[in-house]
């Protein structure tokens, strides 16, 4: 079971028929910039990880999916299919292979990034001596810095991401959006507790501690000359939304877009009769490139 906290704009789940996987919804969503509060006027939702996982597994079961377990060694592009080889020597052939192995993909290749910026975050799900955010509120970003001294304010900024989970439970997370080198997790933990103390709030019970470290600006993979397609929470194609920091297949703010692209992908692949026709359409590109064209809007593609 996934243990991380995932959120999304609720409206982005409706076209996918996934509103039932939300554990909680907030209409009171805000951003704090300096001392200014900006009401976002959009409904935000918290994913119920168990419901989402059950939904996905049920879809796979209805499709009579066959599971194979192993560690992938390589993928080879053949004229009409892709051949995946495992470290144990097993081979599997498929018309389309998708690499969803994360920000350090197993099969998708991409240029080296000379200077990576990392997002880091330290969060707590638990109970507190007083509400760390207004009851019923979800805070996307709180950049207020009244709890920091002059020297700390000259350091790279961090913000609070927080949710009222109901029943006196809250999720609070101190986040460094993107920085090189990455902000240390212990420094973020100190900032979080200092922010809470400034508000007169103490942590009384910890249910779960969340720690996040991932790159934000890896170079995008070229669509050509790839034997597989990349997709996932830290997509192999580098489709993170840097302005609001998140990207997952059907989770967190940028994920609704990713999920819609996933639906477009399924539709496009269902219409694709074979690599030969695609090669005719894209004579100068590989079959994988041609498959990618109907999946991503043209404005999001770069060659």
Q: What this model shows, in words?
A:
The protein has 303 residues and is α+β, with helices and mostly antiparallel strands. It has 6 helices and 15 strands. It has helices at 49-62, 150-153, 185-198, 255-271, 275-281, 287-292; strands at 7-9, 22-26, 28-33, 36-39, 44-47, 72-77, 82-86, 91-94, 98-99, 118-128, 137-142, 159-166, 169-179, 203-215, 229-230. The strands form 4 sheets. The protein has a 7-stranded mixed sheet. 31% of the residues are buried. Mean pLDDT is 81; it is low at 242-266 and 272-289.
Summarize this structure as a short list of keywords or feature phrases.
303 residues
Query: Would you tell me the structural class of the helices and strands?
Result: alpha+beta
Distance between the termini: 37 Å
Order of helices and strands, N to C?
EEEEEHEEEEEEHEEHEEHHH
Number of helices: 6
Total strand segments? 15
The percentage helix is 10-25%
Question: Please, what is the average pLDDT?
Answer: 81
Largest sheet properties = 7 strands, mixed
User: What's the shape?
Assistant: globular
Content of β-strand:
25-35%
- Unreliable stretches: 242-266, 272-289
């Amino acid at each position: 079971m996934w243990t991380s906290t995932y959120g999304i704009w609720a409206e982005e789940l409706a076209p996918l028929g996934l509103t039932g996987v939300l554990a909680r919804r907030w209409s009171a969503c805000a951003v704090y910039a300096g001392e200014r509060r900006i009401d976002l006027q959009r409904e935000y939702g918290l994913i119920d990880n168990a419901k989402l996982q059950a939904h996905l597994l049920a879809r796979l079961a209805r499709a009579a999916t066959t599971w194979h377990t192993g560690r992938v060694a390589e993928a080879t592009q053949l004229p009409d299919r892709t051949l995946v080889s495992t470290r144990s020597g097993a081979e599997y052939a498929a018309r389309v292979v998708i690499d969803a192995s994360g920000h350090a993909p197993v099969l998708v290749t991409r240029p080296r990034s000379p200077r990576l910026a990392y997002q880091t975050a330290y969060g707590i799900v638990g109970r507190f001596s007083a509400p760390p955010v207004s009851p019923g509120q979800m805070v996307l970003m709180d950049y207020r810095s009244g709890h920091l001294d002059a020297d700390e304010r000259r350091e790279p900024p961090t913000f609070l991401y927080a949710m009222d989970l109901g029943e006196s439970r809250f999720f609070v997370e101190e986040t460094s959006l993107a920085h090189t080198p990455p902000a240390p997790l212990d420094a973020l933990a100190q900032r979080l507790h200092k922010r809470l103390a400034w508000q007169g709030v103490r942590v009384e019970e910890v249910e779960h501690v969340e720690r996040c470290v991932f790159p934000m600006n890896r170079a995008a993979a070229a669509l050509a000359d790839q034997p597989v397609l990349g997709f996932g929470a830290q997509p192999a194609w580098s489709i993170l939304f840097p302005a609001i920091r998140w990207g997952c297949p059907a989770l967190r703010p940028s994920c609704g877009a990713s999920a819609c692209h996933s639906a477009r992908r399924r539709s496009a692949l269902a219409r694709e009769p074979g690599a030969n026709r695609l090669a005719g359409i894209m004579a100068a590109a590989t079959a994988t490139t041609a498959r990618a064209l109907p999946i991503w809007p043209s404005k999001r593609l770069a060659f």
